[in-house]
Amino acid sequence: MALIPVFQSEIVEASYDEHYGWLYLDWKGVQHLTAVQQACRQLTDYLEATGCAKVLNDNTNVTQTSWELVAWVADSYLPLTTLLGLEYVAWVVSPQLDCRSNIDTLARAIRQKPQVAMFDTLAEACTWLSSVQVHAKL
Length: 138
What we know:
With about 140 residues, the chain is of the alpha/beta class. It has a single domain (about 5-130), classed as STAS domain (Transcription Regulator spoIIAA, 2-Layer Sandwich). The chain has four helices and six strands. It has helices spanning about 35-50, 65-85, 95-110, 120-130, and strands spanning about 5-10, 10-15, 20-30, 55-65, 90, 115-120. Helix 1 runs parallel beside helix 2 (about 65-85) and helix 2 packs across helix 3. The longest helix has 18 residues, at about 35-50. It is globular and about 35 Å long. The relative contact order is 0.16.
């Protein structure tokens, strides 16, 4: 991946993949609601400025999350990103069991846009995200 850094915090590194035309998010460590909300404000600014329609959301290095955080992402944040033009999220789940169970619950709860697909590996996520077509912007 040819990555252009967008921003970095303690819990996430965000980069734009120029070759594929998507935002790559590499989340790390313990994820607390307040810190994630702060990072998501930066993501919102980026999505609003660029209209980026695809996100590769990598949770491989996440060690802890909570149901409260997952519920906020599903109920508040993802609907907002749709308004900013996000269409597809390829979500690589954490191998940590407690993180994985929260994300599995999220996957069952999401029935809106953007389209979110869950994957065990980065390679699977990249393959899927490469295959989906962004809708023409009016």
